[in-house]
Amino acid sequence: NNIFVGAMSDMFGSWVPDEWIEEIMKICVRYPVHNYLFLTKNPGRYWELEEKGLLPAAENMWYGFSYTSNESQGWASKYGDKNNFVSVEPLLEDLRLFDEYVLCKAARWVIIGAETGRGKTKVIPKAEWIDRILGHCDRFRIPVFMKDSLIPIIGEGNMRREFPQQL
Q1: Are 5 and 24 in contact (CB under 8 A)?
Q2: Residue 16: exposure state from Cβ atoms within 10 A (0-12, 13-18, ≥19)
Q3: 111 compared with 67, residue with greater pLDDT
Q4: 3-state SS string over the chain?
Q5: N or C: which end of the chain has fewer CB within 10 A?
Q6: Which pLDDT band, with edges at 50, 70 and 90, does 77 fall under?
Q7: What is the C-alpha separation between 64 and 165, in angstroms, rounded?
Q8: pLDDT at 162 exceeding the cut of 80
Q9: Do residues 95 and 119 lie in contact, with contact meaning Cβ atoms separated by under 8 Å?
Q10: CA 147 to centroid of chain Cα atoms
Q11: What's the pLDDT at 15?
């Protein structure tokens, strides 16, 4: 099974004690039959845990972070020995992150989605933003999973639902 750990929370937030994260990781390590996906908006916490030896590098552990703007950069080069992924949801601007070779060599999966809802400030991504990300992923053979929210922008026939081989 693929288990999205803390799907409705961010277990890597600064407010979560290391001891809690350590306990969760011990359980995941104890049951290697499953794949574990972690997602955070706080990738710096991965660095802290890595330095403390609390971030397992098992093949069934996947560490991702949400990247929606050009303000968060520089995380991927530290995690070449781990399964890393980037969740670009919602895609709010033309991201420069994918112009960096470091990310393209380290990330092993990219998920892309548009903002949902009906807010006045809702950003609708441009097809060329998506195409640019896809081009970089293709260049480095990174699988891409596109969320249904992109169908109105690029069409059903252009959707990609790829998974890494390990999942």
Answers
A1: yes
A2: middle
A3: 111
A4: CEEECCCCCCCCCCCCCHHHHHHHHHHHHHCCCCEEEEEECCHHHHHHHHHCCCCCCCCCEEEEEECCCCCCCCCHHHHCCCEEEEEECCCCCCCCHHHCHHHHHHEEEEEECCCCCCCCCCCCCCHHHHHHHHHHHHHCCCCEEECHHHHHHHCHHHCCECCCCCC
A5: N
A6: very low
A7: 16
A8: yes
A9: no
A10: 13
A11: 95
Per DSSP bridges, beta strands 83-88 and 61-66 are: parallel
Return the structure tokens found at 66: 């949400």
* Res 99: pLDDT: 63
Residue 146 pairs in a beta bridge with 112
Lowest-confidence range among 25-29, 42-46, 89-93? 42-46
**Start-to-end C-alpha separation, the chain:** 9
Q: What is the C-alpha separation between 58 and 42, in angstroms, rounded?
A: 21
